[in-house]
Amino acid sequence: MNSRNDTTSSTRSTRSARGALTTLVTWILVLIFFFPVFWMVLNGFKPESLASSVDPTFIFKPVTEGYQLAMDRGMAGYLQNSLTAAVIATIISVTLAIPAAYALSIRRVKNVENSLSFFISTRFMPLAAIVLPLFMIFKTIGLLDNIYMLGIVYGAMNLPVTVWMMRSFFLEVPYEIIEAARVDGAGMFREIVRIVLPLVLPGVAAAALISFIFAWNEYFLALLLTSSAARTTPPFLGSFVDGRGQFLAVLSAAATIAALPVILAGWAAQKQLVRGLSMGAIK
Amino acid sequence: MLANKRMLALGTGAVAVAMTVTACSSGAVQSGSGSTGAAGGAVTLKVATVNNGQMKDMEKLKTEYESANPGVTVNFQVMEEGDLRAAVTADVASGAGQYDIVTIGAYETPQWGANGWLVDLTPELQSDASYDVNDLLPPVRDVNTFDNKLFAVPFYGESSILMYNKEVLDKAGVTISQTPTWQEVAAAAKKVNTADMAGICMRGKPGWGDLFAPLTTVVQTFGGNWYDSSWKATVNTPEWKEAVTFYKTMLDESGEKDPVSYSFNECLTALKEGKAAMWADASVAASMLEAADSPVKGKMGYAHMPVDKTKESGWLWSWNLAIPTSTKQKDAAVKFVKWATSKEYIKLVGTKIGWSNVPPGSRTSTYELPEYKDAAKAYAPITLDVMSSVNPKQPGVNPQPWVGIQYVSIPEFQDVGNQCAQLVADYLANRGTIDDALGKCQTIAQTAGDKHKK
Question: How many whole angstroms separate alpha carbon A95 and alpha carbon A112?
């Protein structure tokens, strides 16, 4: 009896030690991943000389000079452009991905695997290879430096990823529910809108947020396809890099402002996101 | 909590929709100064500029130009150097006409001029006596001229000089002459080198504009160069080997730790914080070391760039304003370029922003202004002296088939320089050998040189 108790207690203590170790490793990983963000926020409140200093400083008198400088350079206009492009891209990619994912999962089309490979293959080509043809096309049709066109490009770029994500969410929908809806006389449109979408809403939210984040952070196309009126936040952030002078504080301040909308959106949609991102993983 | 999140989501959504709806027809950025810039002017000039102090000052002063020229709006798009090159090259080469005025380096001017991408400014500038084109520093004019045509005008120019902390050197009983040799500097660096302070800080970060800016001048004064006069690559030569080995030995003995992560800004910080005693780099650094908030203000000494076999070894760089041939507003663009590079503009910067902020290295007359001479007395005379003495047509011992000092004015050089800089940086970091680095670089340079053989 005693020996059994000892074994149980030893198993328990091994489990609890493992749990503590897992918690410790998790915390270490969280700190490693979070530190650059923390450092960015901290640097944004430092004077320029302190932010660029060789010796890292954690305790200092905070200043808002970096934030002031970033806003004085018209950051609001760039944020507005990023928001416009990201919202357009998200609307396009989600609206088109829903019927596409439906046709690739629930009401399967022929040669579905080939279609899937085709979708994702459009992401294989490096951006550098497509940017010049895009530049020449937009130049010819006179749509360079146009924020709506940039939003459409981002929407098209994000579409394959959104379709793939949504397809995996749609596959989770129990077929019995769809069958029941069909027996009750639901048409295809009603089936998607009233039956499928409410079930996969967390997944749609996750795909929409990913599409929004991709568009919000895109740098390369924004740099080349826009020049002034339609320029977005990422190239604006790049413009703080100065080869002949210190810039870390103002860049950190501007980057903190630029990261806020995405962090807020992620926080607001936290519950949906966690459910959505784990949906496709459950088979 | 959930209600709060919903409210926040709703609020975020509402703001998103409102901002999207209010975005103007093609975008929300109206001008460099914000989203409220004037959009109804008869002429709107779009200017692409690099992010440096002098350009940002020009952005601030554009209102002076706009009020003196009613109906003209000037929109600035400030970019990081690499971004500027990518965006402006795509625009100018394709004739897209997104920019009316572009900021380009001395490296680009002759190539773009030869390609027919830029407006020849010679007639406009020479016919205007008040502009005084001959006042532009001759070497800077040379690097912006192709086929006797001035395709860009300098807004800002720089050479390279040696900067040293006099207090530190005095304590160690070391003196530096006004025209030192590299051997003299290396010996001085060794003497003042301690565990807490590097004797000298030099660029080691891979990149044609980083490591190879100072290193090319070292190679040239040691008798080497990238190409001979018939475009035969001359990298794998004893002169290169001697120069690069010297550079590495100096850094190993008395340089900063991990030199491959150091470029201009890192060395500037090291000098300011007393982590390095000497530094050979861009002359504009002197104005930063002498700035009001600099801990080493008044403690610095300045000398010509160290030499070996040549009389001078300073580099030459200028940021210039040019007008792409694709602009539809040439006359308005020329007028603005003339204003921004005029003697009057320099005085305007002095009175409105401060005399130490005046764009250096563009005009001889700048160095005759009493207010500037007073504000920049520590470094202005040597900057003018070096910039007037360097020879971009033949900076090294032997003749070269291009005009330029720390770079080769061919389109392939950015790639050649970047690849070779990586190889040399590997050698500096003890990840490769000198023979391997120079051997591979010779092949890379020759492939590019072959395209220019006649």
Answer: 20
